[in-house]
Amino acid sequence: MADSITKDMTFGELIKKHPKAGPVLAGYGLHCIGCHIATIETLEQGARAHGLNETDISKMLSDLNAVAG
User: Which listed site, 6, 15, 43, 63, has its alpha carbon 20 to 30 Å from 53?
Assistant: First the structure.
């Protein structure tokens, strides 16, 4: 999938491309959409800052890609 969501994508990029991703992020405790750092912080950086491990991040990315289609 050429347009897949990866851990290197910023929160800002994600929400711009996939607005429906917000609830998935919230489900993982990431309420980063309105955060001032969302435009430069990657999904991985934010997830790790909120205590998610590699397994959690992989699951989150899978869930995000499912929502994105």
Answer: 15
